[in-house]
Amino acid sequence: MHNFYNAVKSIYGPISHRITPLKTADGLKVLKDQNSILERWAEHFNTLLNQDSDADYTILNELPEFPPIDNLSQPPTFLEVLSAVRSLKCNKSPGSDNIPAELLKQGGYLCTRTLHHYITKAWADESIPQQWRDASIVTIYKNKGDRAICDNHRGISLLAVAGKVLAKVMLQRLINNITESMLPESQCGFRKNRSTVDMVFTTRQLQEKCREQHKDLFMAFVDLSKAFDTVQRDLLWEVLLRFGCPTKFVSILRQFHDGMTARVTIGGQQSSPFPVRTAVRQGCVLAPVLFNIFLICVTQLLHKEIQDNSGVTVVYRLDGNLFNIRTLQSTTKLHRVRILELQYADDCALVSHSPQGLQSVLDAAVRAYSRMGLTINTAKTVVICQWSANIPPAPPIFYAVDEKLSIVPSFKYLGSIISENNSIDNEIQNRIKQASAAFGRLRRRVFQNKNLHLNTKICVYQAVCITTLLYSCEAWVTYSRHIKSLEHFHICCLQRILGITWCDRVPHTEILRRTGCKSIEATITQHQLRWLGHVIRMSYNRLPRRVLYGQLQLGQRSAGGQKKRFKDQMKTRGAK
C-alpha cells in the first residue's frame, strides 16, 4: 500500500523544493534570501513555542483526583520495547542522530536488547539523553492562506528514533490506564476505532432529528489558535498527576520536554538552536494523547458549569428495533444523554436548541479554554442556525471573548459541509469538485497513458477519485438528484478512462461491465450498510449509536409522512 501511494505521488509530478519567500513579522517586507528566510522561521517558532503562561492553576482544585497507578512507574519490560520497535513506521525522516527506524527494526535481538538496556537505565536515573529531547523542525503548508505568512504553515518535529521507542512504551501505558477510561465519548480524535465520520454522522443525525421533531438547532464551530503549540507544560504535568500518573512517570515525561532545544531545517540548512518551553511536540507519538488529556479538563469544566437545559438532550433505548419508534414511547426503559459538544482533537462543535442556550455554552467554553491557557480564534469561529419555522426570525447575535461571531449558511466541519437546512446539496457539489481535481491531476499521466493496463487505471481511480468523491457518504441521506449528479461524474470519468465519448452510444451498464466498477448508488449502499452494522455493534456508551437509536427529549413530529431520514434510507436499501 505504501508503495502504491508513493507511485501515485510520483505520478502527480515532481515535488518542488523551491524555498518559499516569507514575509517579515510585521508583513511589510518579503524575504527571499535563504539565510534571511531561515532566521525568520527560527524567529517565528522561537516566539510561538515560548509563550508566557496565562493559565489558571486553581483549576486543578476543581478536577477529580485519582490515586496513583503504580504499574505506570514500573521499568519498561523487554517485551514492551520489542513491541514498540516493531510498531515503528518505516520510510520516515530520522532525527538529528540520522538513525532510521529501519535500522532498529532490522537490528535483531541484540540491537533491541541493547536499546532496552539504555531505556531502563534512563528510566532508573530519570534522565534521558539530550539527543532524545532535541528536535529538528520542518514546515508543512496548511493548503490555505498566503504561503508567505508563517502562521499558514505547521511545524513538525523530527525526533530521534530511539527516543520514540521509549515514547511509544509510555504512550501505550497512558492509553491502557488513563485515556480510554477518562476521555469523554464526545472526543473521537486520535482514538482507536474512531474517525471523523463518527462526529460527522452524529452532527447530521442531530440536524435530522431536530428537523423531524420541529426543534431549532444552533451550532458553534470553535477554532482554537495554535492549540498544540500553546499547551502550558507545567499545567499539563499537574493534570497528569491529578489523573493518577505517578511522580516518576511524569518526571520521565518531563525529561522529553524540559531543556529541549530545536532547530529549523530549510533547504538542507539548519538555524541556530533555540529553547522550547511550551507546547507538546508535534511529531512525537505522545503529543496527540497528551493534548487529549489536556482537553479532558475543558470538557469536565464545561459540563460542570452548564447546569441548565442548554445543549441537546436525546432519549434512547438500545434493546428495541431500530426502525420501530414506538419503543421510544416507554417511560421506564429510556436512557438520556445531554450533548453539549462534539470534538475531534481541537475541532469542536457546540450545540443547543436556543440562542440563549448556545450563548451560555459558548461563554462556559471560552472560560474553560481561557483557564487552561488556550485561546479561541473568533475570526474563524462561526455559528449555523437551523430553524424549525418555515420563515426564520431575525438572526440572533452571538459573542465569544466580547467579539461578535459570524453566522454562516454552511461550514466545512471535519472535511464535510454542514448546511443550515440539513441538505447535502453543497456537500455533493464539493465532493464532485474535489474528485474532479484529483482526476484531472492524474488524467494525462495515468488515465490517458496507453502504456498502462486498464486494471491499473481503475485501481488508481477507485483508490484516489472514488475515495475522495464518497468521503463521509456513510452519513448522507441521498435523493435521486444527488445520485444522478454523482453517477454522471462517475460515468464521465470511466468514459475518459476507456477513451470513448457519448457519440459512441455505449450504455452505462456496458461501461460499468468493461471497467468492473459498481454504480455509485451501489457503492454508497455498500458503505452505508457496512457503517450501519458498525454503529449497531458499537458499545452502549458510544454517541453515534445512542443518537441513531434515539430521539429528542422534547419536540413533536408532524402528522403523516416525514421527510426522508437515515433510518428510512437504510430500511429501503436493506430490503433491496
Automatic annotation (TrEMBL):
Residues 121-418 form the Reverse transcriptase domain. InterPro entries: DNA/RNA_pol_sf, RT_dom. Pfam families: RVT_1. SUPFAM superfamilies: DNA/RNA polymerases. CDD domains: RT_nLTR_like (cd01650). It comes from the Eukaryota. This is Reverse transcriptase domain-containing protein. It comes from Culter alburnus.
